[in-house]
Amino acid sequence: MSETIRIAPLTADAFAPFGDVLDVSGAPDKIINQGLCGRYHDRAVLDFGTGRAGISLFDAEPRRLPLTLEMVERHPDGSQAFLPMSHEPFLVVVAPDVNGQPGPPRAFLTTAGQGVNYHRGTWHGVLTPLHAPGLFAVVDRIGAGDNLEEFWFDRPYLIDV
Ligand SMILES: NC(=O)N[C@@H](O)C(=O)O
Ligand code: NI
Protein backbone atom coordinates (compact mmCIF):
# COMPACT_ATOMS: atom_id res chain seq x y z
CA MET A 1 0.00 0.00 0.00
CA SER A 2 1.58 3.30 -1.04
CA GLU A 3 1.75 6.18 1.42
CA THR A 4 -0.13 9.27 0.25
CA ILE A 5 1.54 12.66 0.41
CA ARG A 6 -0.98 15.51 0.63
CA ILE A 7 -0.34 18.60 -1.49
CA ALA A 8 0.02 21.88 0.41
CA PRO A 9 0.01 25.46 -0.89
CA LEU A 10 3.51 26.67 -1.76
CA THR A 11 4.83 29.31 0.63
CA ALA A 12 8.30 30.85 0.83
CA ASP A 13 8.63 29.82 4.48
CA ALA A 14 7.70 26.18 3.92
CA PHE A 15 9.95 25.98 0.87
CA ALA A 16 12.92 27.79 2.45
CA PRO A 17 14.85 24.59 3.37
CA PHE A 18 14.67 23.51 -0.28
CA GLY A 19 14.93 26.68 -2.34
CA ASP A 20 13.37 29.97 -3.32
CA VAL A 21 9.82 30.85 -4.37
CA LEU A 22 9.74 33.36 -7.21
CA ASP A 23 6.64 35.52 -7.40
CA VAL A 24 5.47 39.11 -7.32
CA SER A 25 3.82 38.97 -3.93
CA GLY A 26 4.23 42.08 -1.81
CA ALA A 27 5.83 45.33 -2.83
CA PRO A 28 8.54 45.32 -5.52
CA ASP A 29 12.11 46.07 -4.48
CA LYS A 30 12.44 48.75 -7.12
CA ILE A 31 10.14 50.72 -9.39
CA ILE A 32 11.79 51.04 -12.83
CA ASN A 33 11.01 51.99 -16.42
CA GLN A 34 9.59 55.43 -15.66
CA GLY A 35 7.41 54.01 -12.94
CA LEU A 36 5.74 51.43 -15.18
CA CYS A 37 7.44 48.29 -13.86
CA GLY A 38 8.06 46.77 -10.45
CA ARG A 39 11.38 44.89 -10.15
CA TYR A 40 11.47 42.00 -7.67
CA HIS A 41 15.21 42.11 -7.46
CA ASP A 42 17.66 39.23 -7.05
CA ARG A 43 15.17 36.78 -5.52
CA ALA A 44 16.99 33.46 -5.88
CA VAL A 45 20.22 31.83 -4.67
CA LEU A 46 21.84 30.64 -7.91
CA ASP A 47 24.87 28.37 -7.75
CA PHE A 48 26.51 26.78 -10.78
CA GLY A 49 29.73 25.57 -9.18
CA THR A 50 32.47 25.30 -11.79
CA GLY A 51 29.92 25.42 -14.63
CA ARG A 52 28.00 28.35 -16.06
CA ALA A 53 24.37 29.48 -16.08
CA GLY A 54 22.17 28.32 -18.93
CA ILE A 55 18.58 28.99 -19.92
CA SER A 56 16.69 26.08 -21.47
CA LEU A 57 13.02 25.67 -22.39
CA PHE A 58 11.09 22.61 -21.23
CA ASP A 59 7.89 21.51 -22.97
CA ALA A 60 6.53 18.92 -20.49
CA GLU A 61 3.46 16.70 -20.64
CA PRO A 62 0.86 17.58 -17.97
CA ARG A 63 0.30 14.87 -15.33
CA ARG A 64 -2.94 13.87 -13.59
CA LEU A 65 -3.47 13.47 -9.85
CA PRO A 66 -3.07 11.28 -7.94
CA LEU A 67 0.53 11.12 -9.07
CA THR A 68 2.69 8.09 -8.46
CA LEU A 69 6.06 9.36 -7.26
CA GLU A 70 8.58 6.68 -8.11
CA MET A 71 11.75 8.74 -7.77
CA VAL A 72 13.35 12.01 -6.88
CA GLU A 73 16.60 13.46 -8.15
CA ARG A 74 19.14 16.08 -7.25
CA HIS A 75 21.81 18.14 -8.96
CA PRO A 76 24.94 18.09 -6.81
CA ASP A 77 26.75 20.68 -8.92
CA GLY A 78 24.15 23.40 -9.31
CA SER A 79 20.81 25.00 -8.56
CA GLN A 80 17.82 24.63 -10.90
CA ALA A 81 15.02 27.15 -11.42
CA PHE A 82 11.68 26.49 -13.11
CA LEU A 83 9.86 29.58 -14.38
CA PRO A 84 6.45 28.90 -15.94
CA MET A 85 5.74 30.48 -19.30
CA SER A 86 2.03 29.92 -18.79
CA HIS A 87 -0.30 31.14 -16.08
CA GLU A 88 -1.00 27.69 -14.71
CA PRO A 89 -0.08 26.22 -11.31
CA PHE A 90 2.23 23.21 -11.24
CA LEU A 91 3.25 20.54 -8.75
CA VAL A 92 6.50 20.88 -6.82
CA VAL A 93 7.88 17.89 -4.92
CA VAL A 94 10.93 18.08 -2.68
CA ALA A 95 12.49 15.96 0.05
CA PRO A 96 15.00 16.62 2.83
CA ASP A 97 18.35 14.87 2.66
CA VAL A 98 18.81 12.24 5.35
CA ASN A 99 22.32 10.79 5.36
CA GLY A 100 22.63 11.08 1.62
CA GLN A 101 19.16 9.75 0.78
CA PRO A 102 15.82 11.55 0.45
CA GLY A 103 13.64 11.70 3.54
CA PRO A 104 9.84 11.92 3.42
CA PRO A 105 8.76 13.88 0.34
CA ARG A 106 6.71 17.06 0.55
CA ALA A 107 4.36 18.24 -2.19
CA PHE A 108 3.34 21.81 -2.96
CA LEU A 109 1.02 23.45 -5.47
CA THR A 110 2.17 26.76 -6.92
CA THR A 111 -0.18 29.60 -7.62
CA ALA A 112 -0.39 30.90 -11.19
CA GLY A 113 2.78 32.77 -12.08
CA GLN A 114 4.93 31.38 -9.29
CA GLY A 115 8.28 29.78 -10.09
CA VAL A 116 10.75 27.88 -7.93
CA ASN A 117 14.51 27.65 -7.66
CA TYR A 118 15.85 24.42 -6.17
CA HIS A 119 19.05 25.08 -4.25
CA ARG A 120 22.09 23.09 -5.25
CA GLY A 121 21.71 19.47 -4.16
CA THR A 122 18.02 19.63 -3.22
CA TRP A 123 16.08 16.39 -3.76
CA HIS A 124 13.12 17.10 -6.04
CA GLY A 125 10.62 15.47 -8.33
CA VAL A 126 11.05 16.14 -12.02
CA LEU A 127 9.13 18.98 -13.61
CA THR A 128 5.41 18.19 -13.14
CA PRO A 129 2.90 20.45 -14.86
CA LEU A 130 -0.77 19.75 -14.13
CA HIS A 131 -2.15 21.81 -17.02
CA ALA A 132 -1.17 22.42 -20.63
CA PRO A 133 0.97 24.05 -21.82
CA GLY A 134 3.74 22.61 -19.69
CA LEU A 135 6.09 25.31 -20.97
CA PHE A 136 8.87 26.47 -18.64
CA ALA A 137 12.09 28.40 -18.78
CA VAL A 138 14.75 26.55 -16.79
CA VAL A 139 17.86 28.19 -15.40
CA ASP A 140 20.43 25.63 -14.39
CA ARG A 141 24.08 24.59 -14.67
CA ILE A 142 25.74 23.96 -17.98
CA GLY A 143 29.04 22.18 -17.55
CA ALA A 144 30.98 18.94 -17.41
CA GLY A 145 29.57 15.84 -15.76
CA ASP A 146 26.05 14.52 -15.33
CA ASN A 147 25.10 16.78 -12.43
CA LEU A 148 22.34 14.28 -11.71
CA GLU A 149 21.74 11.82 -8.89
CA GLU A 150 18.50 9.79 -8.94
CA PHE A 151 16.85 7.92 -6.05
CA TRP A 152 14.15 5.34 -6.87
CA PHE A 153 11.84 4.52 -3.97
CA ASP A 154 11.32 0.87 -3.00
CA ARG A 155 7.67 1.80 -2.39
CA PRO A 156 6.43 4.64 -4.62
CA TYR A 157 4.38 7.36 -2.96
CA LEU A 158 1.00 8.65 -4.08
CA ILE A 159 0.67 12.42 -4.27
CA ASP A 160 -2.81 13.90 -4.09
CA VAL A 161 -4.91 16.84 -2.90
N1 LIG B 1 16.78 16.42 -16.32
C1 LIG B 1 16.34 17.65 -16.45
O1 LIG B 1 16.88 18.46 -17.16
N2 LIG B 1 15.23 18.00 -15.71
C2 LIG B 1 15.15 17.58 -14.36
O2 LIG B 1 16.34 18.00 -13.71
C3 LIG B 1 13.97 18.14 -13.68
O3 LIG B 1 14.10 18.56 -12.49
O4 LIG B 1 12.90 18.16 -14.32
NI1 NI C 1 16.02 18.58 -11.77
From TrEMBL:
<dbReference type="InterPro" id="IPR047233">
    <property type="entry name" value="UAH_cupin"/>
</dbReference>
<protein>
    <recommendedName>
        <fullName>Ureidoglycolate lyase</fullName>
        <ecNumber>4.3.2.3</ecNumber>
    </recommendedName>
</protein>
<dbReference type="InterPro" id="IPR024060">
    <property type="entry name" value="Ureidoglycolate_lyase_dom_sf"/>
</dbReference>
<dbReference type="GO" id="GO:0006145">
    <property type="term" value="P:purine nucleobase catabolic process"/>
</dbReference>
<dbReference type="GO" id="GO:0050385">
    <property type="term" value="F:ureidoglycolate lyase activity"/>
</dbReference>
<dbReference type="InterPro" id="IPR023525">
    <property type="entry name" value="Ureidogly_lyase_bac"/>
</dbReference>
<comment type="pathway">
    <text>Nitrogen metabolism; (S)-allantoin degradation.</text>
</comment>
<comment type="function">
    <text>Catalyzes the catabolism of the allantoin degradation intermediate (S)-ureidoglycolate, generating urea and glyoxylate. Involved in the utilization of allantoin as nitrogen source.</text>
</comment>
<keyword id="KW-0456">Lyase</keyword>
<dbReference type="InterPro" id="IPR011051">
    <property type="entry name" value="RmlC_Cupin_sf"/>
</dbReference>
<dbReference type="Pfam" id="PF04115">
    <property type="entry name" value="Ureidogly_lyase"/>
</dbReference>
<dbReference type="GO" id="GO:0000256">
    <property type="term" value="P:allantoin catabolic process"/>
</dbReference>
<dbReference type="GO" id="GO:0004848">
    <property type="term" value="F:ureidoglycolate hydrolase activity"/>
</dbReference>
<dbReference type="InterPro" id="IPR007247">
    <property type="entry name" value="Ureidogly_lyase"/>
</dbReference>
<comment type="subunit">
    <text>Homodimer.</text>
</comment>
<keyword id="KW-0659">Purine metabolism</keyword>
<comment type="similarity">
    <text>Belongs to the ureidoglycolate lyase family.</text>
</comment>
